[in-house]
Specification:
Elements: H1 2-11, H2 14-23, E1 31-32, E2 37-38, H3 74-81, H4 84-94, E3 106-107, E4 110-111, H5 130-143, H6 160-170, E5 172-173, E6 182-184, E7 191-195, E8 201-207, E9 215-221, E10 224-225, E11 230-231, H7 233-237, E12 241-247, E13 295-297, E14 299-305, E15 321-325, E16 339-349, E17 353-369, E18 372-376, E19 380-392, E20 395-405, E21 411-418, E22 421-425, E23 431-434
Parallel strand pairs: 8-12
Antiparallel strand pairs: 1-2, 3-4, 5-6, 6-11, 7-8, 9-10, 9-12, 13-23, 14-15, 14-16, 16-20, 16-23, 17-18, 17-19, 17-20, 17-21, 21-22
Helix pairs in contact: 1-2, 3-4
Length: 441
Amino acid sequence: DWCISQMARDLGEEKDYTRFHQRAHFYQNVFDPSTKFMRGRGLDGQWLTPFDPLVNSAYSEGNAYQYLFVPHDIDGLKDLMGGAEEFSLWLDELFSLTGGENEDGTIGQYNHGNEPSHHLAYLYNFTGEAWKTQKLTHQILTQFYSDAPDGIAGNEDCGQMSAWYILSSMGFYSVTPGQDMYAIGTPLFGKISINLENGNRFVIEAKNRSPENMYIQSATLNGAPFLRSYIFHHEIMSGSKLVFVMGPLPNKDWGSDHSERPWSENGDPVISLIKSSVPEHKKVVLNENGSADNIRQGLKYDYFERFFVTTDDFDKASPVESGITDNFNLHKAGRDSYFGFCFSGYVKVPEDGIYNFYLESNDGSRLFIDGEEIIENDANHGAIEEQGSVGLEAGLHEIEVRYFQCGGGKKLKVSWEGPGLSKREIDSIELFHKTFDPTAC
């Protein structure tokens, strides 16, 4: 959204700029000041509970520590956290706190094996502590990469694991792609030359570089003193020479002044915050086609075999098989990955009241009641449960569940609770379908 807003601004498209500039600030809608984490909200605007920042709940492949990132508005995030000092303390906690589901390639809660974390080590530059960035990037470069068969500490999605290594080994990284600025880390080699497409050459030299001498003592750019912990893209493209003097101890003054730190360019805040609301009792009367004469137990299903990014893609696909099944199960799947199901029918509500529905899935799913989306659980690469609430009259109500699977570890579980009903999976004896109308989705 931020990148789109910048392009729209440069093109003079003010309407598109305003829209996407606003959307680029929407991360503040999911920042909880009481916990200082990004948190999941239900459709009613309430925070999802229980909340444990070390547990993968409303996050995809990560926890609350790994999801506190806003690469296009680091300054805005610092303000939410209470300023640069508070943000620095939070970073210290991120890189030191043990517990949770730690995997290979982790430093505290930092997970280098998953790309959304990749810019976090460079954020100390934004707090005036560039030496901490130098220490961490050196550790990641030397400990999490090797020339062995398992020499990358995570899945090489789109080449990002290698891209981080290439950029960081040269001594800088694009915290905010689309911004004319790179944060400086620590170079891995004594001298690097980059032959640019415009015919110029950018040279990085690290004097006294050794495995122990990871800290920048001083620097020059084209012979002039260079005190900034960032470099502009146009300075690289002009064909410059950046020289670092390295040493074994940190120079905590280098890059510490406010004028020497990188910054974000997200402009003036334009925020539309979520307003919390309480679900209202919703009375729904079964239409004429849902009479008991035309109802039988079981759900209709459409089964798809293809790659899906979201359950919305079902509308563009044709099922390879359709039929009736007893409940929300994946028994009819003909493969272990890259497939989808669309279940549709009716659920029998025992009495009037507010009902909470729960949808647990891997990789993506949605749940609709009477044509209204109650739960959106799309694109989670782990078995994550989401909740939604709706007021219902006793009787039959339309229910639809869409589910797709990408990689391994398929999982689908549909549960509910309500008046006199403790939380449990919806039973097959509570699910029905019409005996005509062969179109399921």
